[in-house]
Design brief:
alpha+beta; 132 residues
Length: 132
Amino acid sequence: MKKHQYNILGGVDEIKAHPQFKEKTINKSYYGSELNKFAAEKCRKDIVVNNIDLIIHNYKNKTIKIVESKHKNEKLSTGQKILLQKLSKMGIKTYVVYGDYPYKDNKFSVYSFQTNSFKYGTAKDLARFLEK
């Protein structure tokens, strides 16, 4: 019997087993790109393929900021956490933003791997955080 789940557009996706982890399931929108899917399916299984949502290179202050986005109650995957922690230790600013688009009426929270702390705010605060 095939397993199914509803996607964010209201459609129904078939759930398949993750090629690297038998206990993890995926739907058709799981991979951020076809290259990510190819790497997960065809490359060695002792590497982890991560899809990170946002990389900001601020040319004015010469910084790079890497941001993973999660819905308000969604959890960060183990692989993403390991990667973001490692990048943080290398001096790259790494964060996880928790919230739901358009962030207007919903407050968001941002977790900093540098400070191991959360900050909270509104859509305007989120825009300022992303811009600086």
